[in-house]
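Case study.
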Amino acid sequence: MTILSTTCPDRGAWRAWLDREEHAPDLALHLDACAACQRLVDDLRQNAAFANEALHTVSASRPPSAPEIALARERLARRERQPVAAQPVPSSQETTPVFLSRISTPWRVAASGIAAALLVSLAVAFTPEGRTAAAAFLAQFRSQQVAAVEVTPQSQAEIMRTLNTLGNLGTIKSGSTSTTGARPGLLRADTPKQVTLAEAAQQVGFQIQTPDPATLPTGMDRTPRVEVMPAQQFSFTFDKAKAAEYFRSTGRVDVAVPDKFDGATLVVSMPAAVLLQYGGQGNRDALMIGEAGELVVDVQGKVTLDEMRDFLLSLPGLPKDTADQLRLIRNWNQTLPVPIPTDKVNWKAETFKGAQGLLLNDNSGVGSAAIFQSGGHLYGLAGSMKASDLKRVADSLR
Amino acid sequence: MLDMLTLAETPDSMAAPIDRFDALFAHCYAELYGLIYRVLGERMATEDILQDAFLKLSADQLIQQRPDPEVGAWLRRVGLNLAFNRIRGERRARARLERVGRLELRDTDQPTDSPASLLVRLEDQAEVRRALAEVPERQRECLLLRHSGYSYAEIAATLGVAVGSVGVLLARAEQAFRATYRRQIQP
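After joint prediction, the assembly is written out as follows.
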């Protein structure tokens, strides 16, 4: 572009010149001699700098990593295959170990999240709001909704280490078996048995909700495999002498257990759950839907909720960030905290069937999960599908 | 047509479009992610849009065979359209732009801050997206593209305008954006 120095260039030319996208030599000469253009260029420069700074604030903090891009490519490949998913797949291509490990990630996350949530609930049952509860000797937590508690790999390890010390502070019982000094891992349910939907409903005592088949991925078998996980009960009774000895032996002489904690008991009642599994064997897509009743936590003994809360949340080794997040949960006695490993999954609050819950997807975008409480039941879904598709499945549960 | 059929039936040549697509995916994914994230501010939503954009590309062999710059421009155009459609689809574009900055903070990929600085940053992001929503669409796309690092030629190819028009489009966009932003914070 040729621009005479006697004619003022338009603002577009000056804006391009600022970006070194306009190389007409006359521009610089013109600018030296033209006060109006100097004002215009100064204005353009300020606007550009302002926009640059502002738009920097909404940029991604980092580009996707090579493994994330590779997994996004895999996810896309799966979507490309979807229209022919109903056709038989050669056995050699069925559900490779790598695939399994990937699609099962969100479910494992969801399952481990729920399991860990039960453990963390022990601590949540003693948040400050409990101070006003009338039940000084018997307090109850009843899950009505879920809330996310973000945990890092380090804090996850610290939480588990801290919870594992519970066995050193008293007696743990799981079901009818006394497991003094046992680890909280005994909360794991017994091996589930495969049953029909009707049998499952009879066993758990409620009508099981199933998704609208139209929302399932193309080619996925509409008939689920059904398993029932029996109800479990877990209790922990403080033993002052045992706890004092443990803290002494670990050099934590600063941790004192008041007398009234002696004999105080937590009782966690895990409801029976039904697990519906779609696909996953002869099909590359997999979807799991879990439904359970409410989780109930009773506290029995001579201590107040506030005292118990202070003690548990101050256990040596419990990450401060985790304890702070638990303290901040409102309606603590109705809220099931779900630990979210932020290094593995993204999450956001979402509404399912009119109830608030959590929508998660793993960082690869290969799978997603949802957890919510509705109508007195806790639901967990996980599948090898987009989060938006999984939400449609969740919303269709009837 | 005969040549195409012959080629399509040759195993070796079957691999060519797949390789081409893989190369395009590897080459374009990260930069497109950066652009679309600026629009949506949500990691999950951004990934979804990219999936949809590349799915369209995978279904269009003719586009794939174009030169890289043209495919890149096509992907940006499709990605931006999908992203803005997504926002418009909720019929509350402005509320949406506020929400991604304020309520869905956990879905962002931003580093962890103290609560106070996090709040300030999210407020800033909400203000920026609110101002962006007020800028005319073509100018807004130009603004996003330029400040995502694209050249004038790339912007022109994406928007389907002459390279010589980019400067004035950008100048107007930046002026409108700044004025809107100031109006917002100093009502």
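Observations recorded in class. Residues 1 and 119 of chain A are 71 Å apart (CA to CA). The two ends of chain A are 67 Å apart (CA to CA). We will return to this complex in the next lecture.
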